[in-house]
Design a protein that fits this description.
77 residues; mainly alpha; 5 helices; rod-shaped; single chain
Length: 77
């Protein structure tokens, strides 16, 4: 992960004491972005069918978890 992100081991070790912490932080970031997008889809319309379509579009949107986003932390915000 650090190599693809272009980071040095010392930087990773400074912020994350164990490798599991860095993986957890990555997963939390991805989950927060996904949650944000789903909440936006729910608030985009009052019509149930449009809400459903928006939520499905979010769940199938490839920008939420591409290999580049997952490895480098580059998210849409």
């Amino acid at each position: 992960m650090k190599t693809r992100a272009g980071l040095f081991t010392s930087i990773i070790n400074f912020y994350f004491k164990i490798i599991g912490d860095s993986l957890l932080a990555t997963l939390q970031s991805l989950a927060a972005e996904f949650n944000h997008e789903v909440e936006h889809a729910f608030s985009a319309s009052a019509h149930p069918v449009q809400i459903f379509e928006s939520v499905v579009d979010v769940m199938l949107d490839s920008h939420l978890c591409t290999p580049v986003c997952a490895h480098t932390g580059q998210h849409k915000y």
